């Protein structure tokens, strides 16, 4: 059975914004779940982040495919009642608000579990369900210890991608939902998904030394920091960059034999010698020459690609027909067959499915009144 239909019949109510939650629910939608994105009447803030594509944004197109959008004001009782009616028909609720906000809006687990005895409720937070601090990716990797061991010796450096949002938020949420569905019981299930706590396994390699009494890992002086010459990045003859990681001795031997440097065979751990010789060695060939040599002689190394080069690789982008933009490109799902692009539902416009969802709830006749009162958007 293709993964595109793995979650057929499962309904997910997505009360998340920005990146962590929406990416998680996008993956669930890719697997076939009926994801209903519950938005305020002004919409997810990500709809207003550049770059813009016509009157939409590229981030919205990338993160909110395979979903339906219901625009509803949960601060009004009639809007909350519509949401409660949906909860009775759903399998999973995922929230991304701060803990006190969830309670204030009356969409907390205690409230919703009374409406649905089999509900799976995932509360995605930065610091945990008992900590109401506001935060973003940078704050979470700081609190998780990742930021402190990243960068040059005198100063932490900000990573180029949102590690906490995806690695500590999106993916743990997907794993949690799938696991909860597998062990589903005749009782509600609650899960607290803290991005900081879910980043701790990322520390496994550097924590090994700390936990055995080696002290705090220092920037540029721990195994994964790039200070080891045979786990680093080097500039090539044509001013490109290659990554080089022959950690195991057998791969180091392959490298020395490939470049005819028998004098280095037994000197992998002579850091001073390697620091002196390796930059010179890598300046002697172009990036392309090095990548060919790495492949031929079985050496862990590769080119450091830019985005144009990354997306030239086959099947990494999927072309989808947008209703008013024509053919647009999205990042392909690594979980799905790239030939299944015709099955992708484009990211919805704000409130695009409000009428459709109200009809499913049997209250479509109230649409005009709800619109006039500013309870839903369409």
Q: What is the topology?
A:
Blueprint: E1 11-15, H1 20-30, E2 34-39, E3 52-53, E4 56-57, H2 58-63, E5 67-72, H3 77-87, E6 92-95, H4 99-104, H5 109-112, E7 120-125, H6 137-143, H7 163-182, E8 189-194, H8 195-199, H9 204-211, E9 232-235, E10 241-244, H10 249-258, H11 271-282, H12 287-297, E11 301-303, H13 307-310, E12 317-322, E13 326-331, H14 354-360, H15 367-372, E14 376-377
Parallel strand pairs: 1-2, 1-6, 2-5, 6-7, 7-8
Antiparallel strand pairs: 3-4, 5-14, 9-10, 10-11, 12-13
Helix pairs in contact: 1-7
Describe this protein's structure:
The chain is α/β, with parallel strands linked by helices. 34% of the residues lie in helices and 16% in strands. The protein contains 15 helices and 14 strands. The strands form four sheets. It has a seven-stranded mixed beta sheet, with helices on both faces. Strands 9-10-11 form a three-stranded antiparallel beta sheet, covered by helices on one side. The two termini are 36 Å apart.
Could you name the key traits of this structure?
Rossmann fold; alpha/beta; single chain; seven-stranded mixed sheet; elongated; 14 strands; 15 helices; 378 residues; 16% strand
């Amino acid at each position: 059975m293709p993964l595109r239909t793995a979650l057929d019949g499962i309904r997910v109510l997505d009360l998340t914004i920005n990146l962590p939650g929406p990416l998680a629910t996008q993956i669930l939608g890719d697997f076939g779940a009926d994801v209903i994105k519950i938005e305020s009447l002004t919409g997810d803030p990500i709809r207003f982040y550049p770059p813009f594509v016509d009157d939409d944004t590229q981030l919205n197109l990338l993160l909110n495919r395979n979903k339906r959008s219901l625009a509803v004001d949960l601060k009004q009782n009639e809007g909350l009642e519509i949401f409660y009616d949906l909860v009775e028909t759903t399998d999973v609720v995922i929230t991304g608000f701060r803990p006190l906000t969830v309670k204030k809006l009356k969409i907390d687990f205690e409230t919703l579990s009374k409406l649905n005895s089999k509900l799976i409720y995932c509360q995605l937070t930065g610091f945990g369900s008992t900590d109401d601090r506001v935060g973003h990716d940078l704050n979470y990797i700081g609190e998780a210890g990742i930021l402190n061991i990243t960068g040059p010796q005198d100063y932490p450096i900000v990573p180029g991608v949102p590690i906490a949002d995806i690695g500590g938020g999106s993916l743990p949420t997907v794993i949690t939902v799938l696991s909860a569905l597998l062990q589903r019981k005749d009782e509600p299930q609650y899960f607290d998904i803290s991005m900081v706590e879910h980043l701790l396994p990322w520390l496994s390699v550097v924590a090994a030394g700390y936990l055995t009494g080696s002290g705090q890992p220092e920037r540029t002086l721990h195994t994964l920091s790039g200070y080891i010459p045979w786990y680093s990045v080097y500039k090539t003859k044509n001013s490109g960059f290659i990554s080089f990681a022959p950690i195991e001795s057998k791969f180091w031997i392959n490298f020395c034999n490939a470049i005819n440097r028998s004098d280095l065979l037994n000197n992998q751990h002579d850091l001073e010698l390697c620091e002196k010789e390796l930059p010179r060695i890598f300046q002697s060939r172009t990036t392309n020459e090095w990548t060919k040599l790495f492949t031929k002689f079985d050496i862990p190394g590769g080119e450091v690609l830019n985005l144009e080069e990354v997306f030239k690789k086959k099947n990494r982008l999927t072309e989808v027909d947008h209703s008013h933009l024509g053919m647009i490109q999205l990042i392909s799902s690594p979980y799905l067959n790239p030939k299944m692009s015709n099955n992708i539902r484009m990211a919805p416009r704000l409130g695009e499915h409000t009428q459709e969802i109200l009809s499913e709830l049997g209250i479509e006749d109230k649409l005009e009144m709800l619109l006039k009162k500013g309870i839903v958007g369409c």
